[in-house]
Amino acid sequence: MGTIVKVSFVKKNKLTEKELNKNILEEFNHTKEIHGRNNKLIHHKSISNFIDHLVHKTENPSTKNNKSNREELGRIRKKELLNDYLVNLNKNPKIDEEISKEYFHDFIQPLGNYMSSYYGFTLVGNGVTKLILLIIITISLVIDYSIYFLTEKIIYFTILSVVIFIVRRILKFKQRKIFGYRY
């Protein structure tokens, strides 16, 4: 069991968004040197996807209520949270399962919730995908059988639903809009 060292990256003078972006990229490069690229305990692919959309892309996320100041403040706060996460990773060279879970719930989950709301990210893993697929198949089968017994026509609603689900996941993967535990 490793000891958990939490570092808050709050300075007296706030960083500008450009400085924060630069800091995030530097910390991420340092994290790759310390932990390696494929370390699932640090949620490397999730972090990489967050950075790709928060730091590298200049596109505006979809806002539901068109409140750009609120969205901008949220984006800056999430960048600060991402930076805090990377600083914490760099202070803890030995990450075990317990620390990984705590970091996921403290950092990755809030970032992922924000990214889901504004950038269209999807949570993968943790049995969520299997549960959603099971629910889709169950509902689709109920619809198929109901239509069959009412009209005696075979409907392929289940197959269509599963294909749509799989295609959406593939598109999210290609757009790098997924995050998850140990991802």
UniProtKB/TrEMBL annotation:
Keyword tags: Membrane, Transmembrane, Transmembrane helix
Ranges that cross the membrane: 154-171
Protein name per Swiss-Prot or TrEMBL: Uncharacterized protein
Originating species: Christiangramia sabulilitoris
